[in-house]
Every structure is written in structure tokens, then in C-alpha cells.
Amino acid sequence: MSPFLLVPASVVAWLGVVATAYRLRGRLYATFAFVLLGIHTALSAAMLPAFARFWPVFAYLQLATYLHFVFLVYPRMRGLVYRALVSMPASFFVAGTFLALPWALLAALGVRLPLPWLPYALAMVGLLQSLFAFESEHDVSLDGAIVEEVRPIPHGSLRVDRPLRVVQISDPHLGPFMSVKKLAAICARAVAREPDLVLLTGDFLTMESQSDPRLLHDALAPLAALRGKVFACFGNHDHEAPEIVRAALAAHGIILLVDDSAVVDTPVGRLQIVGMDFTFRDREARLRAACRRHPRIPGVTRLVMLHDPGAIHALPEGEGDLVFSGHTHGGQVGLLSLGLPWTFLRLFGNRMPDHGFWGRGRDRLWVHRGTGHYGFPLRLGVPAEQSLLRVHFPKPAG
Length: 398
What we know:
This protein is an alpha/beta fold.
């Protein structure tokens, strides 16, 4: 094959994936493949002249992309060799090609921007950041200061001799970038940190890991060592296979709270933990109803698990001393690796808190950057989070 044949071959491959998806999996996935792969095919065709000398590499990455999507017609977890040769190169190439949008659009108009390799270099950085995460520790204060609107705030200066120690695992997304072995290791490290609580804030699966109930069961097994200390809520992807998630959690003594609450005694005192279900429709009404069914207990600090941090706007004020969320993957694309707080989600204001510590009234919100990721194929500038949170608060008045 020559570089001149790559474009028509790519179009044929794109349409072949769409036809296969429609016949074997249905209209929804076929439409997804038609749109996403169609954009990718068009952008990569525009970028091809800049890489004509390296067209065999370009061809291999293009082939990996179409193979990755056609194999998703029958989604399942695949081995390291497949992930290394197909799904990871495909994720890198799709991400780099979408990042190359300005270059591709101007190339279509006959304008050649310099540094056409730059978006692919950024995608390579993103690929590496998607494979690794580092452990961290943070101190946050529940000082009762009033924050006028939902916004990021400093972690606070209040310190107590014995803070609450919480490990949060959010958005592991078992799939191409999160193997069973990797998630099990993350859970084992959580146990080794001897936390008072482990909070799982949803989105355990991808469509690849829904095929076998044993996958999530085995990945969460180390958490059985902390029975009575591990609580979970549903994320949006968990509603695709709720029984698999329920069974895996129950097998290891993990307490699933779906618009429900529990009271737990810890070394820092009694806590009330409320787990909210994920919902888009009638969000405010459903959150208010859950709060009415599970009112605050006087003199008890109240923690809320709320997968989507954007739902903080619908949660009645005063209902969560500290709310734990995930969902955003920390913004997924941003400048955190450079020490700057900006992420892609900051373009849309504070309707969707992206990462870190936020305030609203006297309530506080911790948005976890995610243990894994899904959707956009890579992280870029927003590393995954494996953190221990030390929560400082005075003993509530009884």
C-alpha cells in the first residue's frame, strides 16, 4: 500500500466498521461508530500529507483504530498483548488526531501549520499519564466558614490531633486502561493505608468489563479486609449493569447506598454516610426526597456520596458537611501536571466542579480526579488520583 491509497482504504474500513456494528450490535453503536470514526477518518486524511514519509506507521495506527472499534462489536476484557498492540495505539492515535483539529482544518484550506507532530506528542504524554498514577495525601478542613457560591476554595487551616482518614476510589472503569490486576492492586494499597473509611463513588465498569461478573468481583477482593468500613454509591455507568455491581460489592461486604444512609462508628466519632443514586431527570426533587427520608442526625458529621459533582447545585444546602464526588475524571484534559488548576471543564464555569476542594454555604465538596478514565481515550495533564484524604473537623455539638 502507498500513502495515496491510505485515504480510500480508511474510508472503506470506516464504512465496514459501521456496517458490521449495525448488523451485529445495533443502531446505537453503529451511529456512534459512524460519527466518531467518521470525524477521525476525515481529520487523519487531512493530516496524512504531513506524515507521508512515515506512512507505514500511520497505516498501522489507522488499522489499530478500526480493529479496536470493530472488536467492540463484541466487547470484552482482552489481554495485555491485544491492549498493547491494538487498543492503546488506537486510543493514542484517535486522541492525537482529535487534538490535531486546528492543523487538519487549516490543511483542508491549503494552510500548513508548523509542528504537525505536536498534537501526537501531546497524545503520547497523555498515553503515559493514562497508564500511571501516584499516591498522594491531602488535608482538608470543615471549618464552617460560609462560601457564597459553588467555587473552589483553599483546603483550610483547621487541624485536629486525629483527623478522619478516607480513601476514595472513583471511576475505575475496568477496561483497556484498567485491568483487574491493576484495580486489585489499587484496592490493596487502599487497605494498606489503614483508613477509617473507603468510599467508592461509582462508575466501576465499561462495556468491555460488563461481559463477565467475575472481573469486578476479583478486582474488588482486597477490600473484603475492611468489612464495615467500605461504602459505595452508583455512578451513571453502573446503571448499565447494576446487578453485576451489586453482586461484586455484596460479595466483599461493601455497603451499597442507593438513596440510602448508614451510621458508622469511627475513631473520630459517629458519622452518617448518605449515598445518592445517579440520575439526570428530576435531580433536585429526587435529592430532596432522599434527604427527607434520611434527615441529619444531630451532633453527627454527615458525609454524602454523590457521583456527579454537578449535582451539588441540586443538593439542598446544609445536607452535606462533606460531599464526595467523581465523574469528571478531574477534567481529564488540563494543566494540573504543570501546577496550574485549569482544565477543559473550567471553560464552562462552576456548574460542573472538576477536581479538588469546593465550597457552597457551609457544605464542602471533594471532587476526586478518578482512578481510571473513559470517554475521551486519554488523560492529558490531569493525572489519575490515588489519594488519602485527612478530614479535619471539630467534634459536632450534640
